[in-house]
Amino acid sequence: MIRSTLLATSASLLALGAPMAAASAHDHSTAEETTTTMTDIAYPDTRMGDVVEEQFGVAVADPYRWLENDVRVDEEVAAWVESQNATTDDFLAQVPGREALKERITELTDYERFGLPQEKGGRYFYTRNDGLQNQSVLYVREGLDGEPRLLIDPNEWSDDDATALGGWEPSPDGSKLLYTIQDGGSDWRTVKVMDVATGETASDEVEWVKFSAIEWAKDGSGYYYSRFPATGEGETFQALNTNHTVYFHTLGTAQEQDKLVYETPDQPELNHIAQVSDDGGTVIVTSSSGTDDRYEVTLIDRDTGDARTLVPGFEHSYSYVGNIGSTFFFTTNDGAPLEKVVKTDIAAETPEWTTVIPEAEETLGGVSLVGGKLVASYLRDAKSQIDIFDLDGQMVREVALPGIGSAGGFGGDTDASETFYYFTSYNQPAAIYRYDMESGESAVWAKPDVAFDPDAFVVEQQFYESKDGTRVPMFIVRSKEVAASGEAVPTLLYGYGGFNISLTPGFSASRLAWMEAGGAYVVANIRGGGEYGKAWHDGGRLQNKQNTFDDFIAAGEYLIDQGITPEGGLAINGGSNGGLLVGAVVNQRPDLFAAASPAVGVMDMLRFDRFTAGRYWVDDYGYPNKEADFRAQLAYSPYHNVRDGEDYPAVLVTTADTDDRVVPGHSFKYAAALQAADLGAKPQLIRIETRAGHGSGKPTDKAIEEAADVLGFLGYFTGLKFED
């Protein structure tokens, strides 16, 4: 992969690319015509507590505090979940065309998918899914054109297929394979080692790994990883994550014998990611205190264990790219808000930084050092641009991409003659290309056959003005037929807007099905993301967080004003930080949206920092125990701002019982608040997945089922019909 993206630590809230929904037909009846039934819902009783806490002179009620308790431990919460799911299931079973929708999503999902190959020791490792396998399978080939051989099939690991293959890394000579196991969607990982020739798994394993890279020592003797201390009984999925520590595990030994490499007991809030230099002589530990790109970099001599700080102070981003001897390359935003590439000689008594690739007009997303060249990935208005430079920073060539879309990968060794990358767009599933580093030629390595015509859909980019006049881009995707007709159609608007994460074009079978049914799909690149670098991120966080909501609301208004969607035809969706976005804008402009689905959202802005990874998010949200931050958070917190007496859109909240990133109590409390208020005739429901987490590792069948439920619900209330 582009090397510096490794440091986009899993502690941040990640944008979810979960499948969405749809089917066929082109009947655009109005929402009013489709919502005359199924509105008289008897919600389960939810006990209201009497918790009221005074914060900075404000009495804050939290009547559903008890719903924060772990559903695995608290019988009352478990019963509440069961009754809510029963109510929601009864409603969704009545959604017209839902089975046809599910069938079409299944058909569109049923295509062969490949992961990026990784070559080590002449062997090529890659994942493959035949289409409807619940978990992708890991294969190896002897040589580029060798016969595929099955190495790992996670579909055999559990009866419900909710145990997934996480990260994996072949040893430098290709003889061994490190891999991690993710169970039930949790962020926790177990690390194991396989002998590639025999397929046998070693008896030693490592546990309590989270938000970690797994990096081989170059001699193959073992690997580096990061972990948290083991949790107490009943705390695994809710306890705060502190005291991240780097260890080295020697193959064939017990975890208790692992060597401590780096820790900061006096700063338990820090996270530490370990990488091994390309020459194997140095361990690079990158430390962070939250989700911001502000790092401290420590170099540890592999042989002596001596450590020294290369980048102090947590002031800027410095991300390791690669090295040639003692010359180390990094990307940084130090004096370059859109990022640049720098180098230093670590053998010098006082290393000095020299700019190799200056800051450009586009945002630099990541860089890799492959085949003696620097491969730089830029974002130009949220679309990929890939440029190749020599080690002196001279432009060699631009990689020709197939169109408007996203490209990524470009991993490999410093002396490699080849690299691999993927390209995808809203109307194109990911194809894998082999790139010759000398000639600059790309060749298709794997391209899926799909059950639709990509050319029947058009991807456009338009720009609109937000409330304060800021120019914001959006992608609009429709069938060519709908685009040519100029017809206003039911539209699904998606957003995220946080943590410096950019929304770039990508394929979703279920969203394509929404468009097949005659709808439009729109992605708004609102502030808070990373599409335009640091200023764009800063413009949508902390005291500026309201800009994120204003941008999204303005996107909805633009779609109606331009005749892309009719009034009463706009649905919105977002996950994680995007779930917060949806919850906030529904409260602020309930009249604008016909339906909404916030997924795994951060809904209680006054207590997010008390659970699992929530403490990291203060970089984007601020500190609830600081008055200025508290007042800003309280003003938009979805749970605290439900507007009793207003007519709300139909809302389907989604979450999962094993989400240990954004604990499900956020969604539980928010849904209870919605159901307790007088919000008009449309339903306020919650769908709670079992044996699933924040999104990664979800089995294909569960993803399809959820997509049909969510888009069937949104389509019903926007007037998009699916054939039975």
Task: Please outline what is shown here.
The protein is an alpha+beta fold and 724 residues long.
What do these coordinates show?
With 724 residues, the chain is an alpha+beta fold. Strand 4 and strand 5 (123-129) form a beta hairpin. The longest helix is centred in the last third of the chain and has 19 residues, at 700-718. It is globular, with a radius of gyration of 25 Å. The protein starts with 30 loop residues before the first helix and ends in a 6-residue tail after the last helix. The model is unreliable at 5-37 (pLDDT under 50).
What is the approximate shape? globular
**Low-confidence runs (pLDDT<50, min 5 residues)?**
5-37
Helix content: 10-25%
Average pLDDT taken over every residue: 92
Rg over CA atoms, rounded to whole Å, is: 25 Å
Number of helical elements:
12
Strand content: 25-35%
| Sheet/helix structural class | alpha+beta
Strand arrangement in the largest pleated sheet: 32-33-35-34-36-37-38-39
Major pleated sheet: 8 strands, mixed
Query: Termini, distance in Å?
Result: 43 Å
Determine the oligomeric state from the structure.
single chain
Number of strands: 39
